[in-house]
Amino acid sequence: MSTMEALPPIRKSITVDAPVATAFETFTRGMGSWWPAGSHSIHEGRVEEVVFDEKAGGRVFERTATGEEEDWADVLAWDPPNGFTLLWRVNPERGATEVEVRFTPQGEGTRVDLEHRGWDAIGDAEGRTGYDNGWDFVLRRYSEASTSE
Amino acid sequence: MKTYEEAMNALGDPTRRAIFERLGRGPQAVGELAEGLPVSRPAVSQHLRVLKDAGLVTERPDGNRRVYRVEPGGIAALRAYFEGFWDALLADFKAEAEAEAQERKKP
Questions:
Q1: A26 contacts B100? CB cut-off 8 A
Q2: Domain spanning B4-105 has what CATH number?
Q3: CATH node for A10-144
């Protein structure tokens, strides 16, 4: 709807007492070590690992002990150790939100800037045809999460 | 604005989620929605009421029909949820990255 009020990107920044390479690798390759997959995932307690394909065009997905996989995101941009961009989706044809994370040296540590954008695209009910799966994906991942916090 | 929890509870039901997603492709009347779903028209109306109470859809009369559409404020609630979600996640990430940095410093 054209009269809809714009929803700005979410922007978060933190500094981490770790070199850029360590911060980047922990965020990506090591995502399973800190992401609360027991609550914030599709299979929840059955998730055995979180896999981050380290390349543009790769995907981020969860895998259970029995080998079931559910995609979380596509890797849109891959620029180690400076940053990456994810498209959170179910179907690659469909719209979803984007998450970009940048890593910048700051003294001995790293500044991490996260931007979660694309809210207007999923909220535009009039002119678009493609965000239903994006919604489904976001909701599947986070519906249970809300009750655990 | 309705809370994120209300919106999530409303969308916890698969039929309501299907209705909501259909409305995401454009406004529809109850009858149109019911044609594409394996539930009765009264059931669709009931689900729409829950979605409306949760602030996810709005309705307006169009002749003798009532047309439903997605309420942009529902997305605002979702976005508001993520604001807090990322704070919690980044705190966990920071702890892990700093532990990893200490580990790598060891000879």
A1: yes
A2: 1.10.10.10
A3: 3.30.530.20
